[in-house]
């Protein structure tokens, strides 16, 4: 609606026309209209309070080729402003205290009103992780997963929490109003009750049962869709999100591109970018980016997840029936739970771990990433690193960027999709130390090793050592080769200079702030700056997260250079060209070795036993033909072809780098002669 539009009072003739068309008002002088107002397009309307109506000419189109004249029909309107080319029809009770912007369609609504002052869900404290409220996260319109991480996990930093909550409270006060907004080009139809909810532009609302105290942060680039039968109270829904099919949410933040549907139920939970929830239930969940639950009877409770896929019937326990539901758990990025899996909280599951079976002891596998955690006779067994050779893991990493549903130019969450990063590699380094230490202290005859309420077989331990070593060399080689190619060097001196980090930012340990991977030193710096009140607004703090994300590869190289020094036992300036050549050879062997494992893992999907259920009414030949028609051949599978191509590309890349370095080495030797 144009703010500078001029309004005038109704003329006596217009008032008479309105009366003849069934309109009523106790104060006709409180109604003002804009240029283009057509009284014939207002019928059977009861007006009260202060009313403004813009240009109501033109038509609106509906599905099925139906058109209707803009205007207001069969409604009760109290204390509202109505923009240009708006269509309002069949409001059973009334609409009260709303600013309705241009090109809005409101149809078949029972009740829509603002009562008193409201912040539209901003400033609500969501009891995530701890149902008793110990880790409450205060939400606001542009909350990122990373700011929420601070609010949930840094309660011990009183000044940090106080400053962040103060700023969120200030924001909530700034949006507090006694009037609601229905943004331009929004469509709201077939709703029962809407109370204290603001709608951004292009909101698409069709059939919710009740919406109360919330923000629908839709926009032109990423409309929000709210569907049939949903119940939502004390909520914020971000751009591009969809909620439908009888979903119930209470005290929830729903991030950009999320989908909740098919009778999903969620309370006291945070869902950040691209989460999905169907049929199951969430309670006090910190759902980092790409947390997915698609199945009935799946309960996620009191846990932190990200890039996680929860299988059917997965659940956790946070209540020991002593001091209440005070326990929580952490499932680090990229993990999966199989059907009917169970984890007793408190527990911490390492990154990219597959959890299978029921685990009744408090496990901590955070330093053994890429593992299988399997139940066997009520005991938890772990196979370290085995997920590094799983095609499922690689397939997930490739599909996540392709399934980013965020269309909004302003991305609230910074998402690092890298499988191998300083965060996961440092975990593998710790894992190597753990496995080697277990092996050393237990002796050659030991076949089973105990580690933090889990068991490890000797074979799994030795395989884990091999896989972690390969992955570390793969990461380090990737970093070194990328660095050298980026610098476009021709001499050994230039290579040495290229390999030196620009600064020290990136050294030491790294953290995963629910999607954002960054050095702990920079996280600590940011926290101290917030505590010192160096930032005026929440927006400035969110920009700091974006800077960390943008500078990731610079920081990563600093860490990789430190790893190179550790592996070679030399400073950069003391390295010989032979050191880099041997590293590239190890990288090539590691990459190809891991790819060949993926190739063999993929081949399992094409074995004879995988054809069970094919060729329904035929013999083995029919079974094979049916399988090939449905699944295709092994060699023609897109993922398999990508593995083969990857092996070829990396082989060529490694050979070229070795050839280049060898030529430089020959030049050095000639110069010595």
Walk me through the structure.
- With 673 residues, the protein is α/β, with parallel strands linked by helices.
- Among the domains are: 1-113, no CATH class; 125-174, no CATH class; 577-672.
- It has 13 helices and 44 strands.
- It has a 27-stranded mixed β-sheet that branches. It has a six-stranded mixed β-sheet with strand order 1-3-5-9-11-15, with no helix packed on it. A three-stranded parallel β-sheet has the order 32-35-38, with no helix packed on it.
- Strand 41 (448-451) and strand 42 (454-457) form a beta hairpin.
- Helix 5 (422-442) runs antiparallel to helix 6 and helix 11 runs antiparallel to helix 13.
- The longest helix is centred in the last third of the chain and has 35 residues, at 638-672.
- 44% of the residues are buried.
- The mean pLDDT is 93.
Structural descriptors:
single chain; elongated; alpha/beta; 673 residues; 27-stranded mixed beta sheet
User: What is the strand content?
Assistant: 25-35%
Helix content: 25-40%
- Largest sheet data: 27 strands, mixed
Based on CA atoms alone, the radius of gyration comes out at 30 Å
What is the arithmetic mean of pLDDT? Answer: 93
* Structural class based on helices, strands and sheet pairing: alpha/beta
- Report how far the terminal alpha carbons are from each other: 82 Å
What gross morphology would you assign? elongated
Counting DSSP E segments of at least 2 residues, the number of strands comes to: 44
Question: Runs with pLDDT <50, length 5+?
Answer: none
Number of helices: 13
